[in-house]
């Protein structure tokens, strides 16, 4: 379970102060898949780095599984947007997935199983000894996902993971995320700027305002749990939900325009 | 085949030109190449190679390796720590600007004229390109790679050994390549100042005793040695940085 309460972040450089996050409160229950959407420049990256323990908030708290986050929490795995920069190009696919496990001092045979299972789960069997840069963008992001699930996290944090891949690959990867989430019963917080993607993937969608960020609105996606690209996206309810989210994001942008 | 032709083409032409142009030379100081080559075979016998070339190479190897270890270790410390960097950078720039050969007499004063002096001279000259390139390489490590390491709990020695060092390795290799040519120069210079054996010493001996063809043969041997070492370096680098060259090629294609 992930709890974000009254989170605030102000960047200071000299006399200048920029308030990136004003007051953010939301929770993601254990085993839930929640999508965060917001207009561009809404402080998503700041929020994410605070949750991952990579950045200290100015005020407020992040709690993961009941424990306050003060550094990178062990139960959290992250998939970055820039897969090309997040995978280590000097290591093979296998070593990339295995490195965090080595650091955890997991026994060798157990590591081998975890790495193999994770690569099988993302459909990358047979690429173990390739370097990441020998693979296509979509496959590289699969490696990053494999690294995250091999880490056996309670919570998976995904930062616009499919922003840089083409539309068809993206649809495949979306289905992969839903399948993995259902199978592994992890908590997933998925950050995106794509409204359709948020509604298609999430059980809930949390909408953020423009910076300084607050929670603009929140909806429960009452679509059936078995989703597929063809029928879910054609569902009238899908259209209603995405219209609602779209309107809220537009309102958030106007709100920012009015206040500035 | 074509590559070999490109690599060997110009050297062969130059050598042939030297050979032909110097063929009838009467000059005492620029004897015909045929004479130089003849003395090459006579001069650089196995005895002489073990007596003079091996000590030179040992000093070179010791100084170079020491400089590499010191340069990389210090470079990582400085590169990772903003305060240390701000404090040391001006001083480092100053030391780097001092031409290492002028330090030979100074170093001789306290280190004597033995092997220690020569190794110190080589270390002192070689450490700067390694150090400064390592600092640059460490500073330029991608922030996403650092974030990834932190998020996955890769900390301490593992972060340095498995993430920062490999990420900086292309830049470190550039520093090591520069250092290699400096090391060869300093090896010869330190032996020319004060030594009882070594390549630099032998060449100076030949020159002072007017053994001109032998002197030229020593210079040719030195050139060949430098060429061989840089070839070795490139082979080692190509192996160690295979991922980097592959990555670059992949980026160019996309």
UniProtKB/TrEMBL annotation, chain A:
Statement: the UniProt record of this protein carries the keyword Transport: yes
GO terms, molecular function: ATP binding
InterPro entries given in the database record: AAA+_ATPase, ABC_transporter-like_ATP-bd, ABC_transporter-like_CS, ABC_transporter_ATP-bind, P-loop_NTPase
Gene3D superfamilies membership: P-loop containing nucleotide triphosphate hydrolases
Top-rank taxon: Bacteria
Keyword Electron transport in annotation: no
Every ABC transporter domain range: 2-235
One protein family per Pfam: ABC_tran
Annotated keywords: ATP-binding, Nucleotide-binding, Transport
The protein's name: ABC transporter ATP-binding protein
Species the sequence originates in: Paractinoplanes aksuensis
UniProtKB/TrEMBL annotation, chain B:
Membrane topology, as annotated: Multi-pass membrane protein
ABC transmembrane type-1 domain segment(s): 53-237
Transmembrane segments: 62-81, 102-131, 179-204, 216-236
SUPFAM superfamilies associated with the record: MetI-like
Localization, UniProt: Cell membrane
Domain of life: Bacteria
Entry similarity comment: Belongs to the binding-protein-dependent transport system permease family.
Record protein name field: ABC transporter permease
Organism: Paractinoplanes aksuensis
Lineage, top ranks: Bacteria, Bacillati, Actinomycetota, Actinomycetes, Micromonosporales
């Amino acid at each position: 379970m992930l709890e974000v309460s009254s989170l605030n972040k102000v960047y200071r450089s000299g006399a200048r102060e920029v308030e990136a996050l004003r007051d953010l409160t939301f929770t993601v229950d254990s085993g839930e898949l929640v999508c965060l959407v917001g207009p561009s420049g809404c402080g998503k990256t700041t929020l994410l780095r605070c949750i991952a323990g990579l950045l200290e908030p100015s005020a407020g708290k992040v709690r993961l599984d009941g424990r306050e986050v003060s550094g990178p929490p062990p139960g959290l795995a992250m998939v970055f947007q820039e897969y090309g920069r997040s995978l280590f190009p000097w290591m093979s696919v296998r070593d990339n997935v295995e490195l965090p496990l080595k650091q955890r001092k997991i026994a060798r045979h157990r590591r081998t199983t975890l790495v193999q299972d994770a690569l099988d789960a993302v459909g990358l069997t047979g690429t173990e000894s390739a370097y990441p840069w020998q693979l296509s963008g979509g496959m590289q992001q699969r490696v990053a996902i494999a690294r995250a699930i091999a880490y056996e996290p309670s919570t998976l944090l995904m930062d616009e993971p499919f922003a840089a891949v083409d539309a068809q690959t993206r649809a495949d990867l979306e289905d992969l995320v839903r399948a993995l989430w259902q199978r592994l019963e992890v908590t997933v917080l998925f950050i995106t700027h794509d409204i359709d993607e948020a509604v298609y993937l999430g059980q809930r969608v949390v909408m953020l305002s423009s910076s300084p960020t607050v929670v603009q609105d929140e909806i429960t996606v009452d679509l059936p749990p078995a989703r597929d690209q063809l029928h879910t996206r054609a569902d009238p309810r899908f259209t209603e939900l995405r219209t609602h989210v779209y309107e809220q994001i537009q309102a958030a942008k106007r709100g920012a325009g009015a206040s500035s | 085949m074509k590559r070999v032709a490109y690599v060997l083409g110009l050297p062969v032409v130059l050598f042939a030109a030297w050979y032909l142009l110097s063929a009838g030379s009467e000059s005492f100081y620029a004897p015909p190449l045929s004479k130089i080559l003849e003395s090459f075979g006579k001069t650089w016998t196995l005895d002489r190679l073990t007596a003079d070339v091996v000590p030179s190479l040992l000093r070179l190897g010791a100084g170079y390796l020491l400089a590499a270890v010191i340069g990389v270790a210090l470079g990582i410390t400085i590169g990772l720590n903003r305060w240390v960097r701000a404090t040391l950078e001006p001083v480092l720039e100053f030391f780097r600007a001092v031409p290492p050969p002028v330090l030979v007499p100074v170093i001789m004063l306290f280190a004597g004229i033995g092997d220690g002096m020569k190794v110190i001279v080589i270390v002192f000259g070689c450490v700067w390109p390694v150090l400064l390139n390592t600092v640059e390489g460490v500073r330029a490590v991608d922030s996403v790679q650092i974030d990834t390491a932190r998020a996955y709990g890769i900390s301490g020695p593992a972060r340095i050994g498995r993430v920062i060092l490999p990420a900086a390795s292309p830049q470190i290799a550039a520093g090591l390549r520069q250092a290699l040519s400096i090391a060869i120069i300093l090896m010869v210079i330190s032996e020319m100042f004060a030594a009882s054996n070594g390549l630099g010493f032998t060449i100076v001996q030949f020159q002072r005793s007017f053994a001109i063809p032998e002197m030229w043969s020593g210079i040719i041997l030195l050139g060949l040695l430098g060429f061989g070492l840089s070839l070795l370096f490139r082979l080692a680098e190509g192996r160690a940085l295979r991922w980097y060259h592959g990555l670059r090629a992949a980026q160019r294609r996309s």
